[in-house]
Amino acid sequence: MTSAGAADGPAEPLAVGPEPHRAAFFDVDNTMLIGASMYHFARGLASRKFFTGRDLARFAVRQARLRLTGENAGDMHSTRDSALAFVAGKQVSEIVALGEEIYDEEMAGRIWSGTHALARQHLAAGERVWLVTATPVELARIIATRLGLTGALGTVSQTLDGAYTGRLVGDVLHGEAKAQAVRDLAAREGLDLTQCSAYSDSINDVPMLSLVGHPVAVNPDSALRAEAKARGWQIRDFRSGRRAARVGIPAALGLGALGGGVVAAGALRRSGRWGARPAAPGRAAAGTGRASSSARWVQLGPGVVRAVAARR
Questions:
Q1: Coiled coil where (predicted)?
Q2: Of 6, 27, 290, 15, which is closest to residue 174 (Cα–Cα)?
Q3: Looking at 27, 55, 201, 205, which residue is catalytic?
Q4: What is the DSSP string of 186-231?
Q5: Which of 130, 138, 207 is nearest to 169 (CA)?
Q6: Superfamily of chain region 19-239+246-270+286-309
Q7: Active site includes 55?
Q8: In sequence order, which residues have a C-beta less than 8 Å from that of residue 90 and are 6 or more positions away?
Q9: Are 136 and 263 in contact (CB under 8 A)?
């Protein structure tokens, strides 16, 4: 399966050097990956009957409404708490295995080839490349490994004896928390942030972008585009035609649960279907190629997918 955006052609070379004190930091959702990683994972869970397609459609509509009305701390903490309750007691190994399967099925073909090319340029220059994301760290590491990157920083949930406790270690890696995580990593690795690069699509990542000497707005939202222009930052847009809309969970909303799609699943009503797997694991509902017959996915443009509840 080819990466999304392959028609964009090679990215322009960047002025990067082989010095070990340089590194690059990439956001995930809408920067490296088309759409929200948690939403894609939720689709994978739905195809395995962990919850219904109708639930997923409701969740998508709710997130679209939140995108229009804005994020707030109450929304973030409410979604986070419900997600953590959902994952509590589940085995880390099961969530990671699901993450690997669903990445290959749902996300591998949605990588922005232009952004991935930029990351490879940094690697070829002898620099290390990290993903820095509010996505649960397990899923973030899977994405980094599949893309051949150095590693990933993500939201961390507490575990005990190989299972999730339902609590976070720290808080959701979002906004200023991302910037602090990069500072901490730079201190540990001996990086000179003035010689480092950072890439993001979101105005929420201005704290991280402001840390480095080479900030780049990638597929930016309107607020970040304006900020980048005002500050003289580079802008790279690999979208074509109509701008791609965000899909699934806004970055601030409860990306504090563990394992791919756990956040999305936790934000839904608990359906009591955890562990109820179809006869052939990894396959979608018969005849749909998607999660279930109770929902359909409409392709709106490059990488833009909407879940719509089907009439009964």
A1: none
A2: 27
A3: 27
A4: HHHHT--GGG-EEEES-GGGHHHHHHSSEEEEES--HHHHHHHHHH
A5: 138
A6: HAD superfamily/HAD-like (3.40.50.1000)
A7: no
A8: 163, 164, 259, 262, 274
A9: yes
Note the pTM of the prediction, 2 decimals.
Answer: 0.70
What residue has token string 């105005």? Answer: 203
Residue among 81, 73, 118, 62 at smallest CA distance from 247? 62
Active-site position among 29, 55, 201, 205: 29
pLDDT at 19: 66
Encoded tokens for 135: 């996505």
Distance of CA 290 to the CA centre of its chain: 20
Q: Is the pLDDT higher at 13 or at 90? A: 90
| DSSP string over the chain | -PPTTGGG-PPPP------TT-EEEE--BTTTBSS-HHHHHHHHHHHTTSS-HHHHHHHHHHHHHHHHH---HHHHHHHHHHHHHHHTT-BHHHHHHHHHHHIIIIIGGGB-HHHHHHHHHHHHTT-EEEEEEEEEHHHHHHHHHHHT-SEEEEE-EEEETTEEEEEESS----THHHHHHHHHHHHHHT--GGG-EEEES-GGGHHHHHHSSEEEEES--HHHHHHHHHHT-EEE----SSPPPP-SS-TTSS--SSSTTHHHHHHSPP-S-TT---SSTT-PSTTTSSS-TTEEEEEEETTEEEEEEPP-
For residue 31, what pLDDT is reported? 96
Mean pLDDT of 63-67: 52
To the query of whether residue 27 is one of the catalytic residues in this protein, the response is: yes
| pLDDT for the residue numbered 48 | 80
Distances (CA, A) of 74 to 26, 66, 78, 92, 254: 27, 12, 6, 28, 10
Any residues with CB less than 8 A from the CB of 47 and at least 6 apart, and which?
A: 105, 283, 284, 285, 290, 291, 292
